[in-house]
Amino acid sequence: MSVTLPTEADREFYRENGYFILRQVIPASLLRDLRREAAKAYDIARRLNGPQAQRLSKIKEHAGELDLTPFHEFDQIEGLNAAIKALLTAEHSLKPTEEATILFGPRERPWSTEWHRDWRDHVLEDEFQSTLGDARWQEIAMDFRLWNQVNCPLYEDTSTWYVPGSFKRVHNTAAEERVYASTTQQELRDDAKQRTDEELELFCLRYCQAMPGAVQLVLNPGDFGIYRNVGWHIGNYVPYRTRMTLHTHCFTEAYAKFAKDYSYLLKAEEAGKERHARLAAAGY
Known about the structure:
Blueprint: H1 8-17, E1 19-22, H2 28-49, E2 55-57, H3 69-75, H4 80-87, E3 93-94, E4 101-104, E5 111-112, H5 125-131, H6 133-141, E6 149-153, E7 160-162, H7 174-181, H8 185-189, H9 197-210, E8 215-216, E9 224-227, E10 233-237, E11 244-251, H10 253-262, H11 268-281
Antiparallel strand pairs: 1-9, 2-4, 3-11, 4-11, 5-10, 6-9, 6-11, 7-8, 7-10
Helix pairs in contact: 2-3
């Protein structure tokens, strides 16, 4: 069965809110095969990075241990690229899945990322302003050839939260900044085990829920969730849920050029510390 094409109303929803879900694009037999290879990938990730490993990337780099056939078949799902073009632009296609990432849940303890907006939050402020600046960033953030990230779960995945419409704003609201400033990545991971597992789970959940306007994306097996990753989003993870999710993006030549031209600016850890310090100095 071919993937259902998005309607004009669906397209308008995406352009207004910044996220959309194509439901159940993966046929049952392919879902079975992808789950089998994703389970192998999870074992590889844990072997390389321990029980809290969140991802394995790129899939093709582990071809010696994985059968890439199901990932190639994913690229050929009937109607998927047509649906992507209908929702986005004729320039778009699915990035080859062998180059994608598989996301996993933790084995031992809950944890959460920080609320973040990709790229913008990963660049030092002075370098951002001197290289691009607010006006140019407004154009970039609203360029629908860019920033179309994909989560496609093999098991139900409720870990992603998103703030509709936030991708359109250059500046965050004061309420959003307060939520961001309320904790740190160190607290959300709690490697020092200052909280019990249950305390940490609820701490992370309350942090997700505190962001004004945030919605939890409920992705069923085989759903294809697209979101503009320059909007506010977060991942919140617990060990009692099986998570194996294909993580990729809808490709254009314009996106490849932007990534190539500006990747040198990305300094995620340093930029995060700078941002927390700046907000603390401002009284958040």
